[in-house]
Amino acid sequence: MDFEQKTKTKLGQKNIVVCAQKTRYSLARLALLTTALTAAGVAGRVALQFIPSVEPLTPLAILIGFFIGPAAGFFSGAGGFFASNFLVWGGQGPWTLFQCVGAGLAGMIGGLFGKFFRLDEKIFGKKIFNKELLAIFAATVIGLIFYEIIVTLGTGAFMTLFNPALLLLYAATSIPFSIIHLASSFGFVTAFYEFKDRIKKMKGGKIIEREILGVRVSDGGDSNSGNRIVPYLYSRKTIGDDSGKHDNRLWFKREEQDADG
User: Fold this and answer.
1) Could you tell me whether strands 229-239 and 122-123 are parallel, antiparallel, or unpaired per DSSP bridges?
2) Going by C-beta distance under 8 Å and a sequence separation of 6 or more, which residues neighbour residue 203?
3) Is residue 202 within 8 Å of 177, Cβ to Cβ?
4) Three-state SS for 73?
5) For the segment 230-255, what is each residue's pLDDT rounded down to a tens digit?
6) Average pLDDT over the chain, rounded to whole?
């Protein structure tokens, strides 16, 4: 096959399309930030363990979910309660499962609010009340309601051996503690919210995604048959400012890599 025919063959195979693949290089940074904040919540729960129903771990998990994401919120709530139960009075037990599920779900609800219900603080250029904080309060109420239902009914069913009368009594006596938990969580959320700019700044920064958008035949020269397929590698670079928001500037770069490795 002469050079002209080889060229036509390469051009004919140039438009083969493959599935897009993405890699986020910021995952390690987000995981480290989530772990550090969760460790602070664990320390706070251990320090306040002798005050009934007052713990900063669940509201912190809700904030982590709101600012970082639902998966981070679930990890913070579930992992934080599992780790802190090694250090608090009462230790591990069947209640640990219900606490982990309840706190993890609360953190996930915070993440859903942060993803879908975050609103601007300004309307027509005029600042009104803080709608972001209002969304966090709403996530706190809903998240803690689910937490209390799961923990109270789950632990109560285990403690009363599914006796309906005792379970209702257990749930009724838990209501004052649930109210204390909700009220104290509002205080923790308000206090932690003051550090939102620092959290957003640590979360922000450079995020790079590499996408394989297509493949083509490499030019192997005379010493190569030219049938090696190499991908088009495009890089998307997004730079975050101090507020944690990202612009959408795009730049593209093509690199050739050997498909054989």
Assistant:
1) unpaired
2) 29, 30, 33, 67, 68, 240, 244
3) no
4) helix
5) 444 444 444 444 444 444 333 333 44
6) 75
In the prediction, which pLDDT does 204 show?
65
Burial label, 161 (beta-carbon count in 10 A; 0-12, 13-18, 19+)? exposed
Residue matched to tokens 């002209």: 4
Residue 236 near residue 208, CB atoms below 8 Å: yes
DSSP state of 175: H
Residue range(s) in the chain whose domain bears CATH number 1.10.1760: 27-203
Residues 6+ apart with CB under 8 A from 90: none
Q: Structure tokens of 48? A: 């306040």
Bridge partner residues of 207 (DSSP): 238
Residue 100 burial by Cβ neighbours in a 10 Å radius (0-12, 13-18, 19+): buried
- CATH of span 27-203: 1.10.1760
Which residues touch 201 (CB under 8 Å, ≥6 apart)?
242, 243, 244
C-alpha 106/C-alpha 55 separation (Å) is 14
Whether the model pTM is above 0.85:
no
The CA distance from 52 to 83, in Å, is 19
Residues 6+ apart with CB under 8 A from 122: 128
Scan for tokens 């490795």, then name that residue: 261
Residue 44 gets the label, from left (phi > 0), alpha (psi -120 to 50) or beta, of alpha
In the block, residue with structure tokens 């006596």 = 173
Q: How far apart are CA 127 and CA 27, in angstroms?
A: 34
Using DSSP, state whether 183 is helix, strand or coil: helix
Using CA atoms, how far apart are residues 87 and 91, in angstroms rounded to an integer? 7
